[in-house]
Known about the structure:
Elements: H1 9-17, H2 29-33, H3 44-53, H4 56-60, H5 64-67, H6 73-77, H7 84-97, H8 105-121, H9 126-137, H10 144-152, H11 166-178
Helix pairs in contact: 8-9, 8-11
Amino acid sequence: MINNISPQLDKELERRTGQKVRDCYQCRKCSAGCPVAFAMDLLPHEVMKLVQYGLQERLLGCSTVWLCASCETCSTRCPNDIDVAGVMDGLRQMALEKGAAVGQPEIVLFHDSFLRGIKLLGRTNETVLMGQYKPLSGRLLDDMGLAAVMMLKGKIKLLPRMVKDRKAVRRIFDAAGKSGG
Length: 181
Ligand code: SF4
Ligand code: SF4
């Protein structure tokens, strides 16, 4: 069960990301430059405000943190040097760790499928990615026509290629797991 309000939320995010969200003075430059703002249920400056208020349940269940494309435009624009994209990352981690009912479960599934493919091959492959994602997403037959066209044009390779040193990739995943990544 996730508490609705956590007075320690900004401190927990600071511990995870090194960012001092309490320094945000709501100038909105982050939101003004965000290319995904049109689709978000909370704008980036609103995320920062809710962190200051400690509204944990609302934040960990929002769509915004999953729609964020990690482009870092917001972090570059912030006059206060707050890495807003890093805060979004921290909130994603927290949502997963705390088992929150996330706003965009299919995006979580996509991330998971992507990472499992990288762990397996050391690189991404569209066929493997879709083979993992589509059956679990409940959209097995969506985009089949598009996939066929892309295969015919050689844009999607049926047979995946692997990196030579897959053990090194596993070591990276193991190290990230140990450090809570
Ligand atoms: S740009 Fe920085 S200071 Fe301005 S609202 Fe966004 S996070 Fe806050
Ligand atoms: S990193 Fe995320 S929140 Fe920031 S501008 Fe890009 S999409 Fe928007």
